[in-house]
Amino acid sequence: MIVAAMTAVLIAPPGLANVVVADTEIGDVRGDEGFYHYREYSAVELARAHTFEEVWFLFVHGHLPDRAELDRFVARTRQLQAIPDEVVGILETSAVLGGERQLLIGLRTVMSALGPALGVAPLWDSDDETRRADTLRATALTPTLLAALYRVRSGESPVTPRADLGVAANWLFMITGEVPSAAHARAVEQYLILTMDHGFNASTFAARVIASTGADVHAALCGALGAFSGPLHGGAPDRALDSLDEIVAHGDALEWAREQVAQRRRIMGFGHAVYRTEDPRSLLLREVAQGLGGPTVDAAIGAEQAIVDALREAHPDHPRYANVEFYAGVVMDACGIPRSMFTPTFAVSRTVGWCANILEQAKSRKLIRPAARYVGPPPAAL
User: What CATH number is associated with residue 295?
Assistant: First the structure.
């Protein structure tokens, strides 16, 4: 960061890279170490050993639950999954907005409508318990809304979530209409846990900026969803699997990767803005994918090394590895999630992190209001 002495203006690097803009107790990403955590726990170890609901509780309350706390939390959140009657009509019309892979457009529309329909007050005017209740309801509703949007768009009736299924199993059930196998439910659950939060990424920062204005929870979530829909952020898993399709059709992963590099095309699913090591999320998802097996998994593992080699040839001083999106698409495909639902699946988990950040930001009464440096033509003299 550069300080201009004459004006005391802080000039940040492009993209605010490595600029600390807030304190947080939610978690951190250590890019040079290939490590990230939620509260004081390794996120990868949480994904290995805990359920979605346990880690969700951790984000909301700051500690892992005991059995009684978890039971109460599960009972409470499952009561919040049903779609309110007030937005059923909006959901049906929103399902057709955008292209096949743009269901987040519909979710933004419904999420925006939910605020006034449910009487959600601005964060500025709410106490801590009301804010927490608003975020719990929004998080619990997100998978139900997204699955319903997908079903309606496909010409099918929405599936009501079952009280005896966890969030991950219900997600698969509401998409397909069939109760998933334990292996598929657990694989998706591990992916969801791994992607709940990841530092001050674009969508999280967008949510916090809006929360700093005192707007309501749904306004902040809509802003996060808008940032998340971009192909450089949440929209990457399906594009990474599209690239794998191209590799399989080409027949030679290394040659394909070299062609992409030569043509200066970005290879989706590789490289990361923070990690300088292998992405820890990708490492666990590779294990999950191998446990599921199948031809797509085999193709992905072979292609990964070829792409890493091609990128190393082109950028020997800046190696790039598979990021979370590469194996995320492979795992979701193996579990029967259609490609148009890859980014929505990511949104199901990230809503947990967004809401935690919204609640944390709401405790501050300071508006986030940076400045821009004007570089256009000089204004006319007065």
Answer: 1.10.230.10
